[in-house]
Amino acid sequence: MNIGFDAKRALNNHTGLGVYSRNLLNALFQHFPSESYHLFSAAINEDLLAELKGVFRIHTPQTALSEMFPALWRSKGIVNDLKTNRIQVFHGLSNELPIFGTSARHIKKVVTIHDLIFLKEQQQYPFIDRQIYKAKVGYACKHADVIVATSEQTKQDLVNYFKVSEQRIKVVYQNCDSRFFEPVTDTEKQAVRLRYNLPDQFILNVSSFYPRKNQITLIKAFAAIYNRTNHHLILIGGSESERNKCERLVMELHLSERIMFLSDIPASDMPVIYKLADIFVYPSFLEGFGIPIVEALASGTSVLCSDIPCFREFGEDMVGYFNPNEPIALSEQMLSELANIKRDSPIEKVVKRFSTLAFAKEMISVYTD
User: Fold this and answer.
1) What structural domains and CATH numbers belong to the chain?
2) Please, where are the H alpha helices in the chain?
3) pLDDT tens digits, residue range 150-166?
């Protein structure tokens, strides 16, 4: 079967949507290598391409017009390339599909909708961006044969906001890269600790820096226990504007000696950093999923996360929950967790629910059913 993918995020995005895309592609090739996988992208980051472990045919714009207007190729011109390469299933991995028209009815259309945060938290998005996102998701919902939602929460949001029939939505939880399940040696741990000058004891957060990610509450909670623990706080993420706000708060609270900001960590080092952490804290106000939580669980690290619907949905009793609006309550919960650090996460449950095999099997069934 010839399966095509919108690989813009897979080959150009280091964070959430890119991680999802690369994890899916690697899982599919690992467990279903006999299928033919085609990646369509106007640009390619060679470092991210190197993270794909399999045989993938890469397709880029082939005409002068498409090269000049890559966004137009991705939204419309790509359809001719899909037909030329006899693509049978096309999967839009990040909330959108190209405009197929009537000549491509034979191509099965699948789209993953990760969340509708742009509608639920409108103040965080410029008006024009919201209209573009709404138009793209609306078109995808109308024309997809199957809509993949990353959680039951996202499924319900699609029903509520876009009036999508539940029968057209398939909930498929994201997987966790197999590297997070694998053991690491003391030598590897020491090498990573020295590479990033990591302290002996630390609390970890891995997330992009946006207001809804709520690192501000985590910093305030850490400030409340600063004199009651020797732990440090490590925040790993990009350089979005919210990071500047967080860095200023750290300076104002005189916490710079024990709070560290890191970014651009190679994917190969992340599993080791998770395993070095004593606890992982994820204080987000709103998510469509939360792959860092799964990565932490797979690494055997205790997790505290916001008490929000999608985290409750897939975290169940594997994690501890807190009110993301109450930094003092979070600080006490962190102290309690640090006093009883566990390295016995429910790994069998995590493997069953978030393994590459489970992810690949569910997605292949979406393509073939």
Assistant:
1) 2-172 (3.40.50.2000), 178-352 (3.40.50.2000)
2) 16-31, 46-49, 64-68, 70-72, 78-84, 117-120, 127-143, 152-162, 186-195, 215-225, 241-252, 270-276, 291-298, 309-315, 327-339, 347-354, 356-368
3) 999 999 999 999 999 99
